[in-house]
Design goal:
The chain is an alpha+beta fold and 53 residues long. It has one helix spanning 4-15, and strands at 23-24, 30-35, 41-46. The protein has a three-stranded antiparallel sheet with strand order 1-2-3, covered by helices on one side. The protein is globular and about 40 Å long. Pfam families: Glyoxalase.
């Protein structure tokens, strides 16, 4: 994904819910997760993951 923050704003507006903002993960990417009305979790991320050493 090219711009996870812009996608977050789109999802937040469409869902009409309060969501946790995207965060920078210690392993590299910037992510956010939402649970849909049927209980499925969707995760979106931007960037590359760095394997642990």
């Amino acid at each position: 994904m090219d711009d996870v923050d812009a996608h977050f704003e789109l999802v937040r507006g469409a869902s009409g819910r309060e969501l946790d903002a995207p965060v920078d993960q210690p392993y590299g990417p910037r992510t956010f997760t939402i649970t849909d009305p049927w209980g499925y979790q969707w995760s979106f991320w931007q960037g590359e993951a760095t394997p642990p050493r």
